[in-house]
Amino acid sequence: MKFKDVTDVNDNILYGDLTGQTYNGDISVYNKSKKLTSLEGCPKTVNGTVSFADNNLSSLKYAPEFVTGTFDCSNNKKLTSFEGAPKTIGKYFFGEGNPLIKDPVAEVIRCGIQATRYSFGNGIFLTWEDIKKDFFKYQDMKDSIKSKGFRTLLGLDKWKDLKI
Predict the structure, then answer these.
(1) For the chain, what is the largest distance between any 2 Cα atoms, rounded to a whole number of angstroms?
(2) What are 28-73's pLDDT values in tens digits?
(3) CA torsion, points 126, 129, 132, 137, in degrees to nearest 10?
(4) Which of 14, 75, 108, 147 is the most exposed place for a label (fewest CB within 10 A)?
(5) Are 126 and 114 contacting, i.e. CB atoms less than 8 angstroms apart?
(6) Structure confidence by residue, pLDDT tens digits, 77-130
(7) Cβ count near 38 (within 10 Å)
(8) Cβ–Cβ under 8 Å, residues 21 and 66
(9) In 3-state terms, what secondary structure has residue 43?
(10) What is the rounded distance in angstroms from the CA atom of residue 69 to the CA atom of residue 116?
């Protein structure tokens, strides 16, 4: 089921197609009987909190770009990446319980998701400062690989026959 097609208990469309719009208020499509599979129809900006936890999402494509409150995409057993998540989140980013994302911190860094705090389970909240340190290490490594080349960086350029 797509976001724009989600209904309430009386089978009335809950939010409808909000593509490209700003939504003032919270969006909660939490545990919709595991039926939510696509975020198609989500607004561009949400002035509030967004929860897509405990659903059947495999992608965050079409997620809002900006969320002023919390963004929760936890416990989506088919989610393979945080790609598409808002780049700017005013409060918390919840990303725990997604077993196909092996290193959620690295995934947040890769996707450039900035929030005030992050939760990946075990009751531990990381701050943007915690993430930012790793982010800059990651960026430096990426820049080094681009400028020097992976083989040179690892000292492998002298081993011409070695295939990596």
Answers:
(1) 69
(2) 998 765 689 999 999 999 999 999 999 999 999 999 999 999 999 9
(3) -100
(4) 147
(5) no
(6) 999 999 999 999 999 999 999 999 988 888 998 898 999 999 987 777 888 777
(7) 18
(8) no
(9) coil
(10) 10
As given in the structure block, the two tokens for residue 134 are 């790793």
The interaxial angle of helices 128-148 and 104-111, nearest 10 deg, is 70
Task: Judge residue 102's burial from the number of C-beta atoms within 10 Å of its C-beta, 0-12 exposed, 13-18 middle, 19 or more buried.
Answer: exposed
How far apart are the two ends of the chain, measured CA to CA in Å?
42
Q: How many helices (H) and strands (E) does the chain have?
A: 3, 10
**DSSP bridge partners of 92:** 117
Query: What's CA 91's distance to the chain center, in Å?
Result: 14
The residues facing 59 across adjacent strands are none
Asked if residue 67 lies in contact with residue 49, where contact means CB atoms within 8 angstroms, the answer is yes
